[in-house]
Write a structure and sequence with these properties.
The protein is α/β, with parallel strands linked by helices. It has helices at 52-56, 68-84, 92-97, 134-139, 160-169, 191-200, 215-218, 226-241; strands spanning 2-3, 5-6, 9-10, 21-25, 35-36, 44-48, 102-109, 125-133, 146-148, 152-154, 177-183, 211-214, 244-250, 255-262, 272-273. The strands form five sheets. Strands 9, 10, 11, 12, 13 and 14 form a six-stranded mixed β-sheet that branches. A three-stranded antiparallel β-sheet has the order 7-8-15. A two-stranded parallel sheet has the order 1-5.
Length: 274
Amino acid sequence: MVKQNYGDQKLSVPESVERCVHFAAAHELRFYQRLDSLEKTRGVQYLYPGTSEDITGGAPPGTLGARAELQRVVLRDMLNEAVSYGVVLDTMESMAKWNTGAMLLVSISLNAMLDGNPPEGSAEAGTGLLLVSTSTASRHELHPIATIHRPVRSENADLDHAMTCALRWGSSDVQKLGSAWMTGFDGETVGPLHTALSHLNRDTPHTDELREFNLDRATGNAGPSAGWLAVAYAVQTALQTTTSQLVAQRSVDHTVLAVVATSTNDSNNVPHSA
C-alpha cells in the first residue's frame, strides 16, 4: 500500500538535503503502515521484500513473523550507502568487535636488561585504564572522567582521512584541540601529521599554536605501552584544561590517531569512557 503524501502535505525532499535515500518494505499490507513513498521525488528509494518490521528491525526476531536476516541486509546497505558518501560510521563487523561492556586494560613495558644501562632512548612504563561503553556507564550510573573512541589506524604517508575520522569520532575539530601527545615521531616523520592538521585547519587557522608533547624525547619510548601512556597523559591534561587532546602513535608501517575528551565536552556518539 503506497501513498505519495503525509496527511495533507505532499511528500518531498527539502532543497537543503543533498541526498536522501529511503529503504522501504515492498510487502507492507497493513492499512496503518502504508509506505510513504519517495518515488516521485528527487530522493532515491530501494524496496526490500517483507514488511516494515523486516526492514527496520522494529520487532524482535521471531515476533510478528519478523526475520533478523532481512534486517541485517538492509542495515548493511544503509551503512555502505552512508560510508560511500563520507559519513563516519563503524562497519557491522567493528560494531560487533567493540561491543564490550567493560575492559580493564593494563600495559607494562620493562627493559630486558637487569644489569647495565637500558637501551638509549627507551623508557619503562605501566598504564592501567578501565574502558566502558557509554551504554554500560549509563546503565550502572558510572561517572567516567574522560571519553575516547576507538583509535583510527592509517598508513604513515597520508593522515588526512584518519585525522578527519578521529576528530569527528571525538566530536572535535582542530580549533578545539588543546594539545597533541605523540610517540614514534621524529623531525622527519612528523611531516604527514602536521600536513593533516594544516589541511583541516585551512579555512579557520588555529588562534593559538597547538602544543605538542613528544613523549619519546621527554621520557623515552615505552615500546608497546607508549600509545596507552600517551592516552593517560591526554586524559590527565583534558581533565585539567577541559580541552580535547589528540593522541598520535607512529609505528613502522602505520599511524594511530585518537581524540580524548572530558565527559563534559564530548557528545553521545563517543562509545568508550575511561
